[in-house]
UniProtKB/TrEMBL annotation:
InterPro entries: Teicoplanin_resist-assoc (IPR053150), VanZ-like (IPR006976)
UniProt keyword Transferase, yes or no: no
Keywords in alphabetical order: Membrane, Transmembrane, Transmembrane helix
Identification of the protein by name: VanZ family protein
Keyword match Hydrolase: no
Pfam families found in the cross-reference section: VanZ
Signal peptide: none
Lineage of the organism: Bacteria, Bacillati, Bacillota, Bacilli, Bacillales
Native source organism of the sequence: Paenibacillus amylolyticus
TM regions (residue ranges): 12-33, 71-89, 96-114, 126-144
Amino acid sequence: MSRRALLYSKRVLAFITFLAVIYTLIMCNLLFFSGRAPGVNYQYNLVPFETIRPLLLERERYSTEAWIKNLFGNIVLFIPLGIWIPWLFHRYRSWFRLTFIVVLILLLVETIQLITRVGSLDVDDIILNTVGAWIGFAGFRLLIGSPRKTRS
Protein backbone atom coordinates (compact mmCIF):
# COMPACT_ATOMS: atom_id res chain seq x y z
CA MET A 1 0.00 0.00 0.00
CA SER A 2 1.40 3.40 -0.93
CA ARG A 3 1.96 6.08 1.70
CA ARG A 4 -0.75 8.25 0.15
CA ALA A 5 -3.25 5.37 0.10
CA LEU A 6 -2.44 4.64 3.74
CA LEU A 7 -3.02 8.28 4.75
CA TYR A 8 -6.47 8.15 3.16
CA SER A 9 -7.46 4.65 4.29
CA LYS A 10 -10.78 4.32 6.11
CA ARG A 11 -9.06 3.68 9.43
CA VAL A 12 -6.81 6.72 9.22
CA LEU A 13 -9.70 8.95 8.11
CA ALA A 14 -11.84 7.59 10.97
CA PHE A 15 -9.02 8.37 13.41
CA ILE A 16 -8.59 11.91 12.00
CA THR A 17 -12.36 12.41 12.27
CA PHE A 18 -12.26 11.24 15.89
CA LEU A 19 -9.41 13.67 16.63
CA ALA A 20 -11.30 16.49 14.89
CA VAL A 21 -14.37 15.86 17.06
CA ILE A 22 -12.26 15.78 20.23
CA TYR A 23 -10.46 18.96 19.13
CA THR A 24 -13.80 20.69 18.45
CA LEU A 25 -15.16 19.73 21.87
CA ILE A 26 -12.00 20.92 23.62
CA MET A 27 -12.03 24.21 21.71
CA CYS A 28 -15.73 24.79 22.47
CA ASN A 29 -14.97 24.24 26.14
CA LEU A 30 -11.99 26.65 26.04
CA LEU A 31 -13.81 29.30 24.02
CA PHE A 32 -17.21 29.27 25.69
CA PHE A 33 -17.22 27.48 29.05
CA SER A 34 -13.91 26.98 30.87
CA GLY A 35 -13.68 29.75 33.45
CA ARG A 36 -15.87 32.05 31.40
CA ALA A 37 -18.99 33.85 32.47
CA PRO A 38 -21.03 36.41 30.55
CA GLY A 39 -19.54 39.85 31.10
CA VAL A 40 -21.48 42.99 31.94
CA ASN A 41 -18.99 45.36 30.30
CA TYR A 42 -18.34 43.50 27.09
CA GLN A 43 -15.29 44.62 25.09
CA TYR A 44 -14.66 44.11 21.42
CA ASN A 45 -12.09 45.12 18.82
CA LEU A 46 -12.87 45.60 15.14
CA VAL A 47 -9.60 47.36 14.23
CA PRO A 48 -6.97 45.01 12.76
CA PHE A 49 -3.71 44.81 14.76
CA GLU A 50 -5.01 47.02 17.58
CA THR A 51 -4.35 44.33 20.19
CA ILE A 52 -1.45 42.65 18.34
CA ARG A 53 0.60 45.85 17.88
CA PRO A 54 1.01 46.66 21.61
CA LEU A 55 1.88 43.03 22.34
CA LEU A 56 4.69 43.21 19.80
CA LEU A 57 5.89 46.79 20.28
CA GLU A 58 5.33 47.25 24.02
CA ARG A 59 6.34 43.82 25.28
CA GLU A 60 7.42 45.16 28.70
CA ARG A 61 3.82 46.13 29.57
CA TYR A 62 2.70 42.50 29.63
CA SER A 63 3.51 39.54 31.80
CA THR A 64 5.18 36.67 29.99
CA GLU A 65 2.09 34.53 30.54
CA ALA A 66 -0.27 37.14 29.04
CA TRP A 67 2.09 37.77 26.15
CA ILE A 68 2.50 34.09 25.26
CA LYS A 69 -1.20 33.32 25.75
CA ASN A 70 -2.40 36.22 23.60
CA LEU A 71 0.05 35.84 20.76
CA PHE A 72 1.16 32.24 20.57
CA GLY A 73 -1.88 30.65 22.19
CA ASN A 74 -4.12 32.13 19.53
CA ILE A 75 -1.83 30.71 16.85
CA VAL A 76 -0.95 27.29 18.29
CA LEU A 77 -4.50 26.33 19.27
CA PHE A 78 -5.66 26.64 15.67
CA ILE A 79 -2.85 24.74 13.94
CA PRO A 80 -4.93 21.51 14.01
CA LEU A 81 -7.71 23.26 12.06
CA GLY A 82 -5.31 23.68 9.14
CA ILE A 83 -4.52 19.98 9.22
CA TRP A 84 -7.82 18.17 9.66
CA ILE A 85 -10.02 20.38 7.48
CA PRO A 86 -8.06 19.70 4.26
CA TRP A 87 -7.41 16.09 5.29
CA LEU A 88 -11.11 15.36 5.71
CA PHE A 89 -12.56 17.74 3.10
CA HIS A 90 -10.85 17.56 -0.28
CA ARG A 91 -12.39 20.83 -1.50
CA TYR A 92 -10.44 22.84 1.13
CA ARG A 93 -6.97 21.86 -0.07
CA SER A 94 -6.13 25.23 -1.57
CA TRP A 95 -4.85 28.17 0.48
CA PHE A 96 -7.77 30.33 -0.63
CA ARG A 97 -10.52 27.83 0.15
CA LEU A 98 -8.97 26.85 3.47
CA THR A 99 -8.63 30.50 4.45
CA PHE A 100 -12.24 31.14 3.45
CA ILE A 101 -13.68 28.30 5.55
CA VAL A 102 -11.39 29.03 8.52
CA VAL A 103 -12.39 32.71 8.54
CA LEU A 104 -16.07 31.70 8.34
CA ILE A 105 -15.65 29.34 11.30
CA LEU A 106 -13.80 32.01 13.27
CA LEU A 107 -16.44 34.64 12.47
CA LEU A 108 -19.05 32.23 13.79
CA VAL A 109 -17.05 31.71 17.00
CA GLU A 110 -16.50 35.44 17.50
CA THR A 111 -20.17 36.19 16.78
CA ILE A 112 -21.26 33.61 19.35
CA GLN A 113 -18.88 35.23 21.83
CA LEU A 114 -20.43 38.61 21.03
CA ILE A 115 -24.01 37.39 21.43
CA THR A 116 -23.35 35.39 24.60
CA ARG A 117 -20.89 37.99 25.99
CA VAL A 118 -18.45 35.19 26.78
CA GLY A 119 -14.89 35.95 25.70
CA SER A 120 -14.54 38.94 23.43
CA LEU A 121 -15.01 39.63 19.76
CA ASP A 122 -11.57 40.58 18.45
CA VAL A 123 -10.58 40.79 14.81
CA ASP A 124 -6.97 40.22 15.91
CA ASP A 125 -8.00 36.80 17.25
CA ILE A 126 -9.27 35.96 13.77
CA ILE A 127 -5.95 37.08 12.26
CA LEU A 128 -3.83 35.07 14.71
CA ASN A 129 -6.10 32.01 14.55
CA THR A 130 -5.92 32.09 10.74
CA VAL A 131 -2.11 32.23 10.91
CA GLY A 132 -2.27 29.12 13.08
CA ALA A 133 -4.46 27.34 10.53
CA TRP A 134 -2.00 28.35 7.77
CA ILE A 135 0.88 26.82 9.75
CA GLY A 136 -1.16 23.63 10.12
CA PHE A 137 -1.95 23.66 6.41
CA ALA A 138 1.74 24.07 5.56
CA GLY A 139 2.44 21.02 7.76
CA PHE A 140 -0.37 19.12 6.06
CA ARG A 141 1.10 19.94 2.67
CA LEU A 142 4.55 18.78 3.78
CA LEU A 143 3.14 15.53 5.18
CA ILE A 144 0.59 14.71 2.51
CA GLY A 145 1.98 16.68 -0.41
CA SER A 146 0.17 19.01 -2.70
CA PRO A 147 -2.42 17.57 -5.04
CA ARG A 148 -0.80 16.63 -8.32
CA LYS A 149 -2.50 17.35 -11.58
CA THR A 150 -2.27 14.63 -14.17
CA ARG A 151 -1.59 15.38 -17.80
CA SER A 152 -4.26 14.49 -20.31
